[in-house]
Amino acid sequence: MNLASILFPGVEEKRPIVIAGPCSAETEEQVMKTAKGLASKGFKIFRAGIWKPRTKPGGFEGVGSEGLRWLENVKKETGMRVTTEVATQKHVEEALKHGIDILWIGARTTANPFAIQEIADALSGTDISVLIKNPVNPDLELWIGAIERINNAGIRRIGVIHRGFTSYDEKIYRNVPQWHIPIELKRRLPEIPIFCDPSHIGGRRELVASLSQQAMDLNYDGLIIESHCDPDQAWSDKNQQITPDVLSYIINLLVIRDSTQTTENLTELRKQIDATDNELLSILNKRMRISREIGQYKKEHNLPVLQTVRYDEILTGRINSAKHLGMSPEFMKILLEAIHEESIRQQMIVINS
Ligand code: PEP
Ligand code: MN
After folding, report:
1. DSSP readout, 19-82?
2. Architecture of domain 17-253
3. Residue 132 CA to chain centroid, in angstroms?
4. Tens of pLDDT along 96-135?
5. Digit-coded pLDDT (tens) for 69-79
6. Hey, where are the domains in the chain?
7. Does the beta carbon of 224 sit less than 6 angstroms from any atom of ligand 1?
8. Does the beta carbon of 200 sit less than 6 angstroms from any atom of ligand 1?
9. If you measure from the C-alpha of residue 150 to the centroid of ligand 1, how many angstroms do you get, rounded to a whole number?
């Protein structure tokens, strides 16, 4: 891939590169007040959504093109670079006309190759920076496909944003991080800078600091964080926005480790193990919960806890899949037996309660 830096003179390439600003541009006053707050804390890149993709109709869908003028004023008055989300050819054309420095492509758009191709065609012949969010669904190839479409249009200044993935199940996060997906993306495309969006992963402002630290420990290049001058009054995503002061406090507390030393590479790999183990834990937890639900069903329908045929099926099926994945069948057997034993124990508790 033919790539170049997404940054500009005056914006240091030091980790973390921070992009900050409100979820949505709401009024000229809110935009300017937030931007000035951020600029006074030394932040250099301002984000604000002016076309907002909403899950359902009837919500605030952004101020539209009028907001581009506000972003131009932010540039003029604070010297910050500005970025906004584009989803159609028209958005791209208008953003380019108003001197937006960086465009980002939202998670719902990345999931749609037709939309990405339309954006790529509209970008062709320009040299603008583009950040591509992961698609809402955990599909690495779709994410890489979007990067390739944009790059094939001649865009070299490309970065990616990890904003987590939709899930019905997860309660802690608004969007499950599934860290292994961006980690694999980085392994496959090491030259592309990667940003973490802890605001949309967490969905709650209390989670922004720890997710940001986790991203730094995994050697991400930057962070894109929602910041609003008055978060509780925000017209969209108010639970996850923080004031410029709080943002500055969080960024200053981050521990940034230099990953060029070998021991630091080891630390990074260990962080990846930690993240993977956390995922393993939540999957096991989910499995136990389903087991207890089965226990409840068996209790109500007077069925025995242990059904050997089913247990055999599980064991043989999973051991075969493990072989296909190149894992040891003996190991898989020991693991499944331990999991099954605990499932039975949990079901017994339910049945006897
Ligand atoms: C946003 O950044 O405000 C946004 C809409 O994000 P996403 O595309 O990640 O949902
Ligand atoms: Mn948002």
Report:
1. EEE-SB---HHHHHHHHHHHHHTT--EEE-BSS---SSTTS----TTHHHHHHHHHHHHH--EE
2. Alpha-Beta Barrel (3.20)
3. 11
4. 999 999 999 999 999 999 999 999 999 999 999 999 999 9
5. 999 999 999 99
6. 17-253, 265-351
7. no
8. yes
9. 19
CA-closest residue to ligand 1 atom 1: 23
Relative to the CA of 200, which ligand 1 atom is closest?
9
Closest residue to atom 8 of ligand 1, CA basis: 106
Q: Which two tokens stand for residue 245?
A: 């002061």
196: left (phi over 0), alpha (psi -120 to 50) or beta: beta
Kindly report the number of other CB atoms within 10 A of residue 151's CB atom.
19
- Return the ligand number nearest the Cα of 175: 1
What number does the ligand 1 atom closest to the CA of 161 have? 9
Side-chain-side CA neighbours of 13 within 13 Å: the count stands at: 9
* CB 106 less than 6 A from any atom of ligand 1: yes
Q: Give 93 Cα–ligand 2 centroid separation in angstroms.
A: 22
Of 182, 224, 218, residue with least CA distance to 202: 224
Would the pTM count as exceeding 0.90? no
Lookup: tokens for 122 = 């509209």
Q: How far apart are CA 8 and CA 320, in angstroms?
A: 52
Q: What is the structure's pLDDT at 60?
A: 93
pLDDT score, position 36:
98
How long a stretch of residues is the chain?
A: 353
Fold of the domain spanning 265-351: Chorismate Mutase Domain, subunit A (1.20.59)
CB 221 within 8 A of CB 193: yes
Testing ligand 1's pocket by substitution, the residue of 200, 238, 239 carrying the most ligand atoms inside 8 A of its CB is: 200
Nearest residue CA, atom 2 of ligand 1? 23
For residue 225, give the 3-state DSSP assignment.
Answer: strand
